[in-house]
Amino acid sequence: MTERDLNFIKNMLMFAKRVDGRIATISLQQFTDDIDKQDLILYPLGQLGENASGVSEEVREKYCEILWNPIIGIRNRIFHSYESIDMGVVYRAAAENIPALVKQLECILKQL
Asked: Is the pTM of this model over 0.85?
């Protein structure tokens, strides 16, 4: 793994932890009703995808258990189609998938 890939993985972990810590304190109703709470999740979620897109194909193939394309895809939706985002889908995706992603990224970094 190159230093560049390592930095992207570290950044992914940082942003995933932000999402994980914040989403755990917000109900679905609070999230869908409050644009400030949406911003607390959407920005780091978008940055998570931005960093994922920088990870080399070689590393993505090696760690194929990470759902790289959906992570990058949600970044594209957040930054390019903001007005058409279903906040319920975003909330459920973050609440259900980010905790496992944090563990996966931590495992990758421990292996290095």
From this structure: yes
